[in-house]
Amino acid sequence: LIDCGEGTQMQLRKARIRLSSINNIFISHLHGDHIFGLYGLLSTLSLLGRKSPVNLYAPEAFEAILKVHLSDFDIHLSFEINFIPLRSKDPVTVLSDKHVTVTAFPLKHRIPTFGFLFREAPRERNIRKEALAMYQIPVHKILSIKKGSDLELPNGETVPNDLITFPPPEPVSYAYCSDTQYFKKLSALVKGVTVLYHEATFSAGEKELAVKTGHSTSDQAAAVARDAGAKKLLIGHFSARYKDTGILEKEARSVFPETYCVTEGRYYDISNLDTF
Ligand SMILES: [Zn+2]
Ligand SMILES: [Zn+2]
To answer: 72 alpha carbon to ligand 2 midpoint, in Å?
Structure first.
């Protein structure tokens, strides 16, 4: 779960996402629209009797705040919170397992704020069904073939790996850049990302206001996507002043055509860009 504003629990229910499936919570910064839903969510997880720990990645100042909140409100959670403080000025890998690597990197906002880059781990090669039958590949060789080994036949012949396997799909990645003003280095931090989410609080004409409030304009978000070589850009976090966000999408598309305004409740599959 990335950020947890008010209403997150309701949206998760609407989207039919099991609360128990959330094991890692990433908080970009301590402004209310990104965190006010967290206390309620943690309490609900506890009411549901959760036992396994939750990993919570958040700016370092939040550790003390959470402690005080839990003790002042006499909340005794049924599970441990494993707090991972974010403080580095450089990108740092905060999570790495066989599925995904997550890097946190600093953004430029009014208070310490972090973006997150999620990179899918490369998958193993797939063995061709017909090769399994043709060469009677024994089970104990399958693992190493999936990792790229050639197949040694009993008669001493070698079958090259690429004849019996086919490559997995390219690993995909997703970068989440919540509240930030534009800075040139950001595109390098998310270089080559498949899908970039970037805030676009203001329209292109409001650059001064954007800098003053620590936010970005639509065309600045698009410039980050273009310079990073992203495949798709999702923009969101629009100022309430824009009744029609189509104008922001149009501005962004003049810089980066593959831009989409996020629609609440819509499902975007980063492994299938046709869903955009
Ligand atoms: Zn903010
Ligand atoms: Zn915000």
So the answer is: 26
- Amino acid type, 90: D
Q: Which residues pair with residue 104 across a beta bridge? A: 92, 116
Residues 253-273 have a mean pLDDT of: 95
Place of tokens 């402690």: 67
The per-residue pLDDT for range 151-172, each reduced to its tens digit, is 999 899 999 999 999 999 999 9
Q: Which ligand gives the minimal distance to the CA of 113? A: 1
* 200 alpha carbon, closest ligand: 2
Tell how far the Cα of 43 is from the centroid of ligand 2, in angstroms: 23
Rounded CA gap, 45 and 65, in Å?
A: 19
pLDDT of amino acid 34: 98
Task: Enter the tokens of residue 114.
Answer: 């972090």
CA of 201 to the centre of ligand 1 (A): 10
Q: Model confidence at 74, in pLDDT bands (50, 70, 90)? A: confident
**213 alpha carbon to ligand 1 midpoint, in Å?**
9
Distance CA(82)–CA(92), nearest Å, equals 17
CA distances from 244 to 23, 44, 93, 203 (A): 36, 35, 38, 11
User: Which residues have CB less than 5 Å away from ligand 2 (the ion)?
Assistant: 33, 179
Global confidence as pTM? 0.91
